[in-house]
Amino acid sequence: MNTKRQKKFLSLYKPVHDRFERFCRARVFGQMEYGDLMNDTLVIAFQKFHELKSEKAFLSYLFSICLRVLSNYNKKKKELSYHDSEQILNVSSDIRTDRDADVHLLYQALAKLPETQKESLILFEITGFSIKEIAELHDVSISVVKQRLVRGRKKLTQLLNPAPLSQLNKNNPS
Amino acid sequence: MNKRERPLDELFQSAKSQEPKLSFDEVSKRFSTSISGGGITKWSNGIFKNIINKTSLFITSTAVLIGTTVFLSYNTNNQNLNKETITDVYSDNTKIILAQGNEPKIELEDRKVADQVKDGPKEKPRNTNDDKRKQIDTFLISLDTDTLTNNMNSGTKITFRDLPQSFFTETADLFEIENSQKVEEKISATQKSNPEERDLILNSDSDQSKVDSTEKVFTLNEYSTESDFRRVYELAKKAGIDYWYRVHHQKKRKTKELFLVRDFKITMSIPGTDIASNIIVNVAREGSFKVKFGWTTDYNGQAIDLSESILIDESK
After folding, report:
1. Which of residues 39-68 of B touch A (CB under 8 A)?
2. What's the CA gap between B203 and B272, in Å, rounded?
3. Any B CB within 8 A of A106 CB
4. Which residue of A93, B12, B15, B261 is most buried, as measured by CB atoms within 10 A?
5. Which domain range does residue A127 map to?
6. pLDDT digits over A153-168, tens only?
7. CATH no. for residue A143?
8. Does residue B194 sit in helix, strand or coil?
9. How far is CA B276 from the centre of its chain?
10. For residue A173, is it within any domain?
């Protein structure tokens, strides 16, 4: 019975694995091991699998659990801070191609954004959720999500394109 | 082209099209292991490790706290059981009986107590089967002879609580003798002549221990404060003296911390007698003085005479 249920669960998970993996990797970059987040989310999702009413809603079901796990994690962020240095080192060692380097830079910049803006941007730009879906996941209005996306992109652009030296010299003559 | 100058969308596209670092097989394998192995044990590096650690820490600390509280409250209750208040003391020729109302609590052999007091604290208590007797024996042995004598001479009340803390044992510290007007305990006259023969004699009607009179003397000077004058006034009233006083202090100055006495007047008289006394003092500016005065009280604390040795020493 349990094996059957497990197979069913994994069959639903398989199509969304890539998106879920990318989201977790981007979301907890520099904070914790994203494999742990994935596994914790999957275990909880499996335990509450019977509560899932429609298989079509599996993606949002999985992400909503992941966001709750992350929320709990943030409450205990201080205790887990020792993971940071290890995680950054591990990520750095994964860079093999130019694309990997680009993505690494992007994740580094994303990690400096506020949680809500970062999460909205990752869900929208990397994971491929619609604004409406993000609004439902975060339990906020669509305009709030839009606002977060705009502000997040603006900050991200600033982070990835620092002001030229000449402009800085103008602002600070000394 | 610098990577940092690439458009943001291009970076997002790169992230979106990047191959997963963890394959589905790896994730599903780990997931299956977690499910079959009970889950929690496999999350050693994850979030739940911390939750579990915190929970166990909380449970342990709560258990310790409850245990400590129970232990302390149990000990307190045990101490409360040992508290007894002795309200009456009876005696005959052979025994001292400490009682609570009409119920005898402790019986002491008169001779034994006397011997123990005489021999001092070096002697160990005699073995008895009665726990209470043993307790009071121990207590009396550790009791300083002079302290016991003084307490017994003081008349109406013997309160062992007033004795030094070192005399008390856990069970003996709350023995209290009240309402002892029924019994007057005196040290016999033999105590004065020969310490070896001293003994406790009860129901004596001797008045030798009563103090006939006490002289109270007060000294006031230019530094005396209003509370000093007030204290003397209250003591005089307590002694039954008609007492009146008035005091003026020098004007307040910013540079002066003390406000010296400028002048004062005290009038005292004992009602029903013609004994009266007036003290009037005028002090020169920045002058000093010393006034000694007082009264004599009887054993009830009532004034019977005013001090004749009023001394006024005034100097500039």
Report:
1. 39, 42-43, 45-48, 50-51, 54
2. 36
3. yes
4. B261
5. 102-161
6. 999 888 887 655 444 4
7. 1.10.10.10
8. coil
9. 41
10. no
